[in-house]
């Protein structure tokens, strides 16, 4: 099991594929298995680096609270351990917050940047009670109940209307569930995250990606990000909520590969039709091993 001591903690990571380095950063409570439905398409083009943030999966879970800048330092230390001087970075939800801090603190380290289903500054009146619910659920409920509670927030009514999909998600429990104190520490990182006024300093070509039906990080958050990051491109996926790229992994992989290959700095990119990226049929609409952010 690949573990490395970085930034004072033991961190789990995996590497798949060849090509330009691509770092994928998880959301709250999620581990690296979350990316499995997208991995075949991404690893065919890139050297994909997945890992578990502090507080989740197979990485250490020291006492919190954590900060997104602290977790960005963890990610930078991991890349240094792997000898990676520059990488594309994709961050999902809390991972998108970490990716913002990574791009701000280590501008030469980030090549192209994708911020998926995330924000620069939370609306506290909404996010504070929501995070309190997340933490209390992890402390008091069994894993199946927690998974069931997450599904309506992450997936669309079309997904929830298919009993076989819901049953498969409930049956696919995480083999490395995050400890309750790790969830609480990560929640504090989300609660305190604020890069809004610093976004104009992000130099990396950036794609801001979001599902049109996202109720956790609604489209207005992504519009705010795209408006403040110089040259950023906003792409709203027509189908899907907070987990759109996992509910529709073929579409998700196509959007990621199209941007990472052409880049927002390519003036013709917006006029091109992205190359279709075929995914294994078994992953279509598969929520993967993790149902957290």
In terms of topology, how is this protein built?
Elements: E1 3-6, E2 9-16, E3 20-25, H1 39-43, E4 46-51, H2 68-81, E5 87-92, H3 94-105, E6 110-116, H4 124-140, H5 143-154, H6 157-160, H7 163-171, H8 180-192, E7 206-211, H9 219-228, E8 233-237, H10 244-247, H11 249-262
Parallel strand pairs: 3-4, 3-5, 5-6, 6-7, 7-8
Antiparallel strand pairs: 1-2, 2-4
Helix pairs in contact: 2-3, 4-8, 5-7
Describe the structure.
- By secondary structure, the chain is of the alpha/beta class.
- The protein has one domain: 3-Layer(aba) Sandwich (Rossmann fold).
- The chain contains eleven helices and eight strands.
- An eight-stranded mixed sheet has the order 1-2-4-3-5-6-7-8, with helices on both faces.
CATH superfamily: Alpha/Beta hydrolase fold, catalytic domain
Low-pLDDT runs of 5+ residues are 264-284
Domains counted in the coordinates: how many? 1
Q: Examine the secondary-structure arrangement and name the CATH architecture.
A: 3-Layer(aba) Sandwich
| Class by alpha and beta content | alpha/beta
Shape category: globular
Helix content: 25-40%
CATH class wording: Alpha Beta
What is the chains' assembly state?
A: single chain
Notable characteristics:
eight-stranded mixed beta sheet, Rossmann fold, 11 helices, 293 residues, alpha/beta
Summarize the structure.
This protein has about 290 residues and is α/β, with parallel strands linked by helices.
